[in-house]
Amino acid sequence: xxxxxxxxxxxxxxxxxxxxxxxxxxxxxxxxxxxxxxxxxxxxxxxxxxxxxxxxxxxxxxxxxxxxxxxxxxxxxxxxxxxxxxxxxxxxxxxxxxxxxxxxxxxxxxxxxxxxxxxxxxxxxxxxxxxxxxxxxxxxxxxxxxxxxxxxxxxxxxxxxxxxxxxxxxxxxxxxxxxxxxxxxxxxxxxxxxxxxxxxxxxxxxxxxxxxxxxxxxxxxxxxxxxxxxxxxxxxxxxxxxxxxxxxxxxxxxxxxxxxxxxxxxxxxxxxxxxxxxx
Length: 279
Hints:
The chain is of the alpha/beta class.
């Protein structure tokens, strides 16, 4: 049996509080990942993004990250040196952050920034770099890659900036991609094109994908498995095609809040939170 690409057991992330204590924002998260599409869903503040950052080693300096096991492709991420973690980032594990405005360098053309990612991890000729930059932009449904590669970040729309970030993370051909709301700023037609690119990478290259999202309908149709997080912990793991059969009241509450065409819903449903969900 093939070993999983990523193994996470009892991952915890905590931050110092003003009173000198610690506040846990990720509490005992455990899962494995192979060449598949795993969704992590939940409300804002549920710990989805902090889980992804902890795996990549991008938690804030003051964060306290611990786990019983955090292994990627045989490498113990808890025992890797700073240099070893840096070598893994971008080349083997990549993360697309949610807001490209804060991730792109405002004084460099986007083509230069995408090329920098490739040059940092692979020795290739200038001609090959240019070819792969344009191909990466084309792969994420940018119609005029040569023109767009010469633009500065402030000249991009929000959706185009998000696709540029996706191209930048994929150009080095990582084994694992953590995508934090990668399609939230895209219109439906472009969203489908980007999802098709990600699907091909998982199927053809054997890449693992962690897809962080608020969109339950999207992940139910695109992903293989879904982890539902509430207050820093996983409350339910379910096959994506069976999401409508979810058993946990929190997952049922999220599904019940989705709008439904042709059905009047007044008043709008709200989550009835229960104290035992935190146990």
